[in-house]
Amino acid sequence: MSKRCYYEVLGCSKDASAEELRRAYKKEALKHHPDRNQGNPRAEQTFKEVNEAYQVLSDEQKRRIYDQFGFAGLEGAASGGPGDMGDVFSHMQDLFAEMFSGGPFGFGGNRAPRRGGDLRVQQRLSLRDAAFGCKREVVVHAPSRCDDCSGSGAAAGSKPEACSACRGTGQVSTARGFVMFTAPCARCQGRGQVIRNVCKSCKGEGVIAKPRKVTVNFPAGIDSGQRLRVQGQGMPGPGNVPPGDLYVEVDVEEDSRFERDGTDLVTRVNVGFVDAALGAEVRVPSIGPETENGEEPTLTVSIPAGTQSGAVFTLKGQGIPRLDGRGRGCLIVVVQVQVPTALTSRARELLTMLDEELRLGAEDAEGVSRRRVAASSK
Questions:
Q1: Is 330 annotated to bind ligand?
Q2: Nearest-5° angle of CA 195, CA 201, CA 203?
Q3: Annotation-wise, does 146 bind a ligand?
Q4: What are the CXXCXGXG motif repeat spans here (predicted)?
């Protein structure tokens, strides 16, 4: 099979800078690394092509030869001695150490410490708790560090020993041509340590599955779908590496009194026919804290005479506090005028009289209006 253009292999243009070549190499090497594509021979072949391409294009002299003469110009240089091989290993060590720092693809030396996996839980809050913030104990069902062995996995009075197969690195390397492949050590499963006397409580795992409580502070103004990170409360890592983080996803319960729109609250209040016609002071629900006697808090809204159903009144600063602490949203009150349905004979008589009176008033008003128009036209 004919070779692909080195620039095509790395996905770069021919005028790419050294830094652009380096970034492209990191991306492609990470994508096609055999340890991430086990059982995929095509990925292994592409990984070799990526390393070969970068070996040539990262060397200024070889790149000039390749740009001018193509693969034919490299036939002599490509079979160079140990110096060329050392260059390849140097590139791979530097780049992969940067890419996989703390992961399973280290190249020995002082690797950055790994950490345990992250956990995710969901916590339901009432609208009032979400509005004003609260502190809750969240129950996490996940493995926890074994107390008997302090997470080491070794029985009391003993400790893990460095693996002789990988010399404590957790990795073994195999050279295939001029490419160095690494994989987790089979003897220690990539931990770099072996346990001769296993802890009976955790059977050498260093963790035991048990529920635990984590105190979480929910800030005022938090909403459904938002997530909090509690550092160090996730899965414990292998050995004594730091644990991961706990992510708490918030789900705010619906409240029958309000509809939430960001930091604004919408509430609907029923107003009697007479109050809407004559005007009145009405009480509307509030999101504030409960009163001392346990009753729900309310606010007073002035309804002017002649208020129609669907009228909207906005109370500023009575909504949900903003997460940044800069004030609160609005409480939007939507009026729904209640029309009486069950009428006594006396109520029906009075409404009929009211209707006649309103009609006369409308006719009088219309007559006055006509007289004014006639007078102004003369």
A1: no
A2: 40
A3: yes
A4: 146-153, 163-170, 185-192, 199-206
Q: In what order do the strands lie in the sheet with 312-321?
A: 259-261, 264-272, 328-338, 312-321
CA atoms within 13 A on the CB side of 124: 4
The whole-number average pLDDT for the span 292-304 is 87
E strands, the chain, are: 119-125, 134-145, 161-162, 171-176, 179-184, 193-194, 207-218, 227-230, 246-252, 259-261, 264-272, 280-285, 298-303, 312-321, 328-338
Question: Long-range contact list for 70-73, CB < 8 A, 24+ apart?
Answer: 71/3
Please give the radius of gyration of the chain, using alpha carbons only, rounded to the nearest integer: 38
- Any idea which fold 6-99 has? Helix Hairpins (1.10.287)
Q: Are the C-beta atoms of 235 and 244 separated by less than 8 Å?
A: yes
Per-domain boundaries in the chain? 6-99, 119-252, 259-338
Average pLDDT, the chain: 80
**Phi and psi, residue 86, nearest 5°:** -65, -35
Alpha carbon distance 4, 28 (integer Å):
15
Query: Is 119-252 a CATH 3.40.50.980 domain?
Result: no
Is 12 labeled as ligand-binding? no
Do 237 and 144 meet the contact criterion of CB atoms below 8 Å apart?
Answer: no
Q: Is 163 annotated as a binding residue?
A: yes
Question: What pLDDT score does 160 carry?
Answer: 84
Contact 35, 43 (CB under 8 A): no
pTM over 0.90: no
User: What are the C-alpha distances in Å from 351 to residues 343, 347, 354?
Assistant: 10, 6, 5
- CATH class of the domain defined by 259-338: mainly beta
Rounded CA separation 178/159 (Å): 39
Count the neighbouring beta carbons within 10 Å of the beta carbon of residue 117.
13
**CA-to-CA distance for 307 and 352, rounded, in angstroms?**
21
Q: What is the pLDDT of residues 76-131, one digit of tens each?
A: 544 443 334 444 444 454 454 444 444 444 344 444 457 788 889 999 999 999 99
